[in-house]
Amino acid sequence: MVQERTVPVFSPTATTISREDGLTIYEDMVLGRSFEDKCAEMYYRGKMFGFVHLYNGQEAVSSGVIKSMRSDDFVCSTYRDHVHALSAGVPANQVMAELFGKETGCSKGRGGSMHLFSQEHNLLGGFAFVAEGIPVAAGATYQTKYRREVMGDESADQVTACFFGDGASNNGQFFECLNMAALWKLPIIFVVENNKWAIGMAHERATSQPEVFKKATVFNMAGVEVDGMDVLAVRAEAQEAIARARAGEGPTLIEALTYRFRGHSLADPDELRPKHEKDDWFSRDPIEKLADHLTAHNLATAEELKAIAQRIQATVTESVEFAQSSPEPKPEDLYRFVFAEDV
Amino acid sequence: MAETLLFNALREALDEEMARDQAVYVIGEDVGHYGGSYKVTKGLYEKYGDMRVKDTPIAENSFTGIAVGSAMTGLRPIIEGMNMGFLLLAFNQIANNAGMLRYTSGGNFKIPMVIRGPGGVGRQLGAEHSQRLEAYFQGVPGLKLVACSTPYNAKGLLKAAIRDDNPVLFFEHVLLYNLKENLPESEYLCRLDKAEVVREGKDVTLLTYSRMRHHCVQAAKTLEKEGYDPEIIDLISLKPLDFETIGASVRKTHRVVIVEECMKSGGVGAELTASINDRLFDELDAPVVRLASQDIPTPYNGLLESLTIVQPQVIVDTVKDMMALQV
Ligand SMILES: Cc1ncc(C[n+]2csc(CCOP(=O)(O)OP(=O)(O)O)c2C)c(N)n1
Ligand SMILES: [Mg+2]
């Protein structure tokens, strides 16, 4: 058995986060968790199809990074994208409707679970092939820099957060884009969600250097590791990286050590991960950790948190009703959107 | 009128479009300081600077993805494939993201980009630098495929491709860069979706594109002397195909010979043949004949290489055989 990595310790104080921000983040994490649980239920009831990858356990990464960004910043995700989309502000109704393949979905039912997009919310995707979103995210940042430097647009200081897994960090597009992003000082944050597994491939069996954040240094780029089960720790690193990118000082590689609480996808029997490993990580639930912080520092009461969870549950239930009652795409629209002329 | 070489016509197109629209930029290997492997971008770096004429590391899949991401967010990138064959390394970004993303996103994003560069079978460049890529890419939904063949259409088509809101794969041929032609002084554009009637005739329709257009013209000169009257159509758009122009010609000649440099299996000619049979079968007086290049890696040896692609004499013989077949 490979030794678990020692996680950097983050010691928050009563002033690390305000009550307001704390509750916003808590709500976002609970939304992520409840939404995914509902997806599992709907999948097993035959309401959604295809490969559905849930995010349970990793909520601190999405909420910690995206909730530290502005609404005009960009987010780029993978096939495990429901919760990134929700954190980016895509309404639960639109995400659920997309999973049901409905016309009201954020990709109008043409994309599905692995292809969530929203121009309105600057969500670049939803990329189903491992690592292919990384260059696209870098391209969005090239655009920001270009707008500022070539077109003289002073307001072009947007940052792009690009999420991907430990498995993706062994792909050429990762290295190629670290190089170009550092070379050209692109305002991008590479967020590696190291959940230790790429389907059935254990991280240590796939890389000669399991400490992914260290790969930043050879590209002359800032690289940090962070406890991905601690949203306040993630948030602190994200804030620093965002400030760096916004100031034109270039990219950051954040490696968040995290874990998925479910199988790779809902079709995965999840037979390889040892029980003690799972139990160990289950005991570090990121939502409970934030709840403990909020209550311990009198930022919120247990009752308030419970009320939030109930409200979110209602939102998620409603999203299913919305999805169910939404129309299917029209057959005569089969070819719509192949070309730009179709709007 | 100014006599212009084809590669300069392409540069004029880039220059004019970059001057016209600040969102237009060029990205690729050696496009900046070096001026492009065939000097198509020469001088543009000096004029437009580093961000607008971006020299990249040798990372085709990633810089293509960067172009896609920038196009999704409002820029109009033009990728130069140093040799179009290198874009095999970028197949994923071209197919999944440039080609399909608009559809999978339900119309959320458009991807206005041009992917252009030298390709085709040159003079003994060896298999990897003598690729015939049209067939590989024609199956990708959402991509437009355009092939230029003269300085005039190279310039007008490239300008139109840059202004098009779709991803356009723009094929140039290494052996056509030094063609010369008098170009108009005033601005013009060519339609991306319109085939060009190169020579009107009544006996047989030769459907061709890129360098093979010139082989057809050469063959037509011989045929003319022997009393034949072929019509030559340069497809220009390999996808979608201009069936208005093709149909009008077939209804006139009732005979079709396809002349392409693409490989025969699953090539542009294969698609054309099937589509002609679908749409125009009743008009045909003879089966469609496909003259394509051989299904082999392009050999280095000069003799073998010339046997790999269609030669003018083969076109002449094929037309004569077809005309001998009386209905
Ligand atoms: C190019 C490509 N190859 C293979 C796959 C199949 N695949 C889907 S997810 C996955 C593992 C990715 O693991 P990781 O990057 O760690 O992300 P995680 O699933 O753990 O979030 C693989 C191999 C794919 N989607 N794309
Ligand atoms: Mg993983």
Describe it for me?
- The complex is a heterodimer of chains A (about 350) and B (about 325).
- Chain A is of the alpha/beta class and about 350 residues long.
- Chain A contains 11 helices and 7 strands.
- Chain A has helices at about 20-45, 60-65, 80-85, 90-100, 135-150, 170-185, 205, 230-245, 275-280, 285-295, 300-325; strands at about 75, 160-165, 190-195, 195-200, 200, 220-225, 250-255.
- A 5-stranded parallel β-sheet of chain A has the order 1-2-3-7-6, with helices on both faces. In chain A, strands 4-5 form a two-stranded antiparallel ribbon.
- In chain A, helix 1 (about 20-45) crosses helix 11 (about 300-325) and helix 2 (about 60-65) packs parallel to helix 8 (about 230-245).
- The longest helix of chain A has 26 residues, at about 20-45.
- The termini of chain A are far apart.
- With about 325 residues, chain B is of the alpha/beta class.
- Chain B has 2 domains: about 1-185, Rossmann fold, CATH 3.40.50.970; about 195-325, Rossmann fold.
- In chain B, strand 13 (about 255-265), helix 10 (about 270-280) and strand 14 (about 290-295) form a beta-alpha-beta unit.
- The longest helix of chain B is centred in the N-terminal third of the chain and has 15 residues, at about 5-20.
- The mean pLDDT of chain B is about 95.
- Chains A and B meet through helix 5 and helix 6 of A and helix 3, helix 4 and helix 5 of B.
- Thiamine diphosphate (TPP) binds near residues 164, 166, 168, 195 and 197 of chain A.
Q: Supply the helix-strand structural class of chain A.
A: alpha/beta
Biggest β-sheet strands, sense, barrel of chain A: 5 strands, parallel
CATH topology of chain A: Rossmann fold
Hetero groups in this structure are: thiamine diphosphate, magnesium ion
